[in-house]
Structures are given as C-alpha cells and as structure tokens.
Amino acid sequence: MNDFEVEIVSDLSRIKKIRLLALKEAPFAFGTKYAEALAWNDQTWQEKFAKTTWFIASRNGKDIGCVSIDEDDRFPDAKCWLGGFWIKPEYRGTNLIQIILAKTDEYCRQKGWIKQGLGVYENNQRAIRAYEKLGFIRHDRTLPSRSNPNLMYLPMFRVVAQN
C-alpha cells in the first residue's frame, strides 16, 4: 500500500516551510544555511525560486520531502538540475525516494530532458551511496560550490527512466 503523494507545488508558504525544515535538519547537505533562509522576505524567496519547479512529498496531509528542478546548462548533456533533495529522517529507507524520482522523471520526459544532474558535497557519503543506488553516476571531478565556494561538490548524473 502506497500512501505517499508527490506533487508539483507553487504555494510559496509550503515551499518555505519544507525548505526551512530541510535546512534545519540537514545543515551539512545544503549551501544555503537555515538562518540565512529564515531571514529572507517573501520577495527574496520568490526571486530565488522564480524559475524553479518544486515537488513536495506528503503523507496523510503532512509534507515530508522535497526536491526542486531547474533547467540548467552547466553540463552540456544534462539539461536539468535537481536541488534541495530532502526526505524527513523517519521516511528515509522507504520507497519514497523512488516515488519522488518517478515524478521528476515524468516531468523531465515532458520537457524533453533525458539526463538529470545533481550535486552532493563530497563529504556526504551517505547521500552519494543513496544516489548511486538510484542510478546516478559520479562525475570525474569535484567542483567548487556556487553557494559556498569553500566546499567542493560532486556532480552526479542519471538518465531519466523511460516509461
């Protein structure tokens, strides 16, 4: 029985709430820091995410995970970038991550994007292993983070699942 729901959300208050929860729970995983994002006004939130599509996962009406997708041209063959991927700790290890990726794959197919990219800080080995299990392949080198140039991130790529 699957009682997870994943939907595209444009409601800024929902996006803010889940994003702040993710930043607070896993500060090591994101370039943006909780205190920084907490201080943003609504206009800043809107500007930062104007071209971003947010998927929010919920269970029984409670938001429990998220990921964003941006059109991107950093890497020639990956036309989109997944960001802010986070799942509440008590739902990690379930099939929720596969459900979220199925939704992002559907969205990517509609856009004609066949390869997804994402970045993981090189010291976040648990996330790297999880993404590898999902079919993401490590890039050949790490790169400096745009949001935190003192940290290096590992780009990873995955071909979008076809129906």
Q: Number of DSSP helices? A: 5
Find the CATH superfamily: Gcn5-related N-acetyltransferase (GNAT)
What's the architecture in CATH terms? 3-Layer(aba) Sandwich
Report the CATH C-level class.
Answer: Alpha Beta
Helix proportion range: 25-40%
- Mind telling me the C-alpha Rg? 15 Å
- Class derived from helix and strand content: alpha+beta
The low-confidence runs, each spanning 5 or more residues with pLDDT under 50, are none
What's the β-strand tally?
A: 8
**Average pLDDT number:** 92
Q: How many domains make up the coordinates?
A: 1
Please provide a brief summary of the model.
This protein has 5 helices and 8 strands; from the N terminus they run βαααβββαβαβββ. With 163 residues, the protein is an alpha+beta fold.
